[in-house]
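Project standup — Tuesday

K.O.: blocked on the structure for the chain from last sprint. Re-posting the sequence here as requested.
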Amino acid sequence: MAVRTFDVYTYGGGDLLWEVFNAAAAYMGGGDYLTLIRLFGVLALFWVVVELGVRKTLNWHWFAMFALLYLVFFVPKTNVRIHDRLHPASNRVVANVPFGMAAPAWLFSFLGTEITQALEALFSVPGDLRYDKHGMVFGSRMLAELREARFEDPLLRRNLFEYMRQCVFWNVAYGFYSYRDLYYSQDLLNLVFSTTRNSGIRGMFYDTGNGRAFKTCAQAAAALRPAIQKEVRDRLIPEWAARLFGHETNDPLAQKAMLLSALPAGFAFFTGAAQGA
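H.V.: unblocked you, prediction finished:
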C-alpha cells in the first residue's frame, strides 16, 4: 500500500520542522516508545479490571479509547514533504511520521498559507514585500534599517554637519528652497546638494583630512555628493543587504541585488501609503 504524503508549508522554519519531524519519527520508531505504549496499554487494561472488581461494572471505554487513538493516530506512518516558501533549499521529505502528527501539521499550514496568499492578493502588496517571499513585515523591517543608518566616516559626518549648518539653513532662509520642499522632496539628494541651488559666495570650512579649506556652498555640495554616494554604495548597502538577506544567501552580490530590487517597491509602497493617508 502506498504511503500517504502530507505537504507542510512554512515561511522560514523549514530546518526546524525537519528536525522536529525527524525527531518524532526516530523516537516513535524506537524501542523505548513501543515500551511506553505497552505500559500505558497495560495500565488501561488494569484500570478496567480494577473497576470490574470494585464497582462490578465493565467500564471498557478507557481501554477502547486508548486503543482507538493509538491505532488511528500513531500506528499509520506517513511522509511529510516540507515546503519552505522563504528558503527553498530547506525543502525536504521526512519519512515514517505518525499520521496524528502529520495530518494536523498539513491542515493548519495549508489553511495558513491559503489565508496569507488571499489577504496579500486582496490588499495588493508589492511582490518584494509579500510575506511568502521574505517573511513577516519585511517592508517595515527594511525601512527600519534605513532609519537607523548612520555615516561612520568621521570626515564625512563633520563636513555634512557643517554643510547643513552653514549652507542648508541659509538656503532655506534666503528662499533657495523651503522646509516644505525638504519634507516632501522625492529626490532629497539632488535638492540639497544641487550646485545651482547653492550660493557661489557663502561657504564653509571643509575638512580635507589634512586641514580645513574654505569652499563655497556650491563647491562643498559638489564634493559632498560623491562622498555620500560612495559611503552608501560601499558600506551601507552591503551592510543592509547582509542584515536583511543574510539568512537567504551568503553571496554578497546576490544580497545586494535582492535589496536593490526590494528597496524601490518598499519605499514607494510605504511612502505612497503615508502620503495618501
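K.O.: great, moving the ticket to review. Residues 57 and 245 are 65 Å apart (CA to CA). The first helix runs from residue 14 to 28.
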